[in-house]
Write a structure and sequence with these properties.
Elements lengths: L3 H17 L7 H8 L3 H10 L14 H15 L5 H33 L7 H33 L8 E9 L2 H6 L3 H21 L3 E6 L2 E6 L2 H16 L7 E9 L1 E3 L2 E3 L1 H12 L5 E3 L1 H7 L5 E5 L3 E3 L2 E4 L2 E5 L5
Parallel strand pairs: 4-7
Antiparallel strand pairs: 1-3, 1-4, 2-3, 5-6, 7-11, 8-11, 9-10
């Protein structure tokens, strides 16, 4: 006779099989041998994807894992996945998708709660209906972003690994202090409002979100005027959201190293330093952005006295405001 623990384990295995799309039946050694991959590299890639280590002979892999390994082998043969970047690419993909899956599991959890106490026994059936829909939507969004990125790539110098960009940092002032005075529900609402506001404003202004970390968003734009308009609109939008603290924003322009969806370099550091120096509700920009906007009547610039910050003993900030000419 099976007990509650046995029933729960059976449900978990059934749910896992539905999500994985096939039953487990292959070891890592099997997958590597059939796909023609080096076993040691297969171990490293598995860790880079963020999964816990398993013995090489443990039969925890499915036919879909084998298909993925064969696809990887084809990319390697075509020269599209050189050895020096494979683990970095795996880490980048894993970090992005791991965050997405946490949200999706939370979504499924709320669905289960809404269905009542009996849904636990039917969770596999619910997942069988929901997971393919999530996968289809995920593929749609990926293809749309891929098309937009390819269009930008085709319009730029494809060989340039350090394109000129305007980098913006924005964060909520006093976020840590504000969290102490709010319940979990209020904190969740505040984060959701911040995410919605930043996404709406940045994408509407032709900017691109690089990443969000808690109370902070990092974005880029191709032109100084685009980034300036986004920054001012961000400050105004968040100020109009009662639960949200004011933003402080920094902008800097110049060559940026773009790697695996993130940005690096001195311009990123300067934008972060300017953000830290900005007062609540204001936008500070560097010399390059100020020069680019000098003759644009939509913006007004006020030069401030130099500041000494970590790594930059004479950083020259400009206060950015709306000008009188144009929207």
């Amino acid at each position: 006779m099976s007990g509650p623990d046995d029933d729960r384990l059976a449900r978990e295995l059934a749910l896992e099989e539905i999500v994985l799309g096939a039953p487990r039946g292959y070891s890592r050694a099997d997958v590597a041998e059939i796909a023609g991959l080096d076993l040691e590299e297969a171990r490293r890639l598995w860790r880079a994807l963020g999964f816990a280590e398993v013995p090489d002979d443990a039969r925890v892999f499915t036919a879909r894992d084998l298909d993925a390994a064969r696809a990887l082998a084809r990319l390697i043969e075509l020269g599209l996945f050189p050895q020096e970047v494979r683990e970095a690419v795996a880490r980048a993909i894993a970090q992005a998708l791991a965050r997405l899956t946490v949200w999706q599991v939370g979504l499924l959890g709320r669905l289960f709660e809404a269905q009542g106490p009996e849904v636990g026994r039917e969770s596999a059936a619910v997942a069988a209906d929901v997971v393919p829909v999530l996968e289809e939507l995920q593929s749609f969004v990926w293809r749309r972003h891929l098309a937009a990125t390819l269009r930008r790539f085709a319009a730029s110098d494809a060989a340039d690994e350090t394109p000129p960009l305007v980098v913006g940092f924005a964060d909520m002032v006093g976020f840590t202090r504000a969290t102490r005075r709010r319940s979990w529900a209020e904190l969740g609402e505040m984060i959701e409002r911040f995410s919605a506001a930043t996404t709406d404003v940045i994408t509407a202004g032709h900017g691109r979100i690089v990443k969000t970390v808690g109370d902070e968003v990092l974005f880029v734009a191709d032109e100084a005027a685009q980034a300036a308009a986004v920054a001012l609109a961000l400050a105004e939008r968040v100020a109009a959201e009662p639960p949200l603290p004011e933003l402080r924003i920094g902008l800097a322009a110049g060559p940026v190293l773009v790697r695996f969806g993130d940005v690096y370099g001195e311009v990123v550091n300067i934008a972060a330093r300017l953000r830290a120096q900005a007062r609540p509700g204001t936008v500070l920009v560097d010399r390059a952005v100020a020069t680019a906007l000098a003759d644009d009547p939509r913006f007004a610039l006020q030069r401030l006295r130099p500041v000494a910050v970590r790594g930059y003993p004479h950083l020259h900030p400009w206060l950015l405001q709306r000008g009188g000419g144009g929207a």
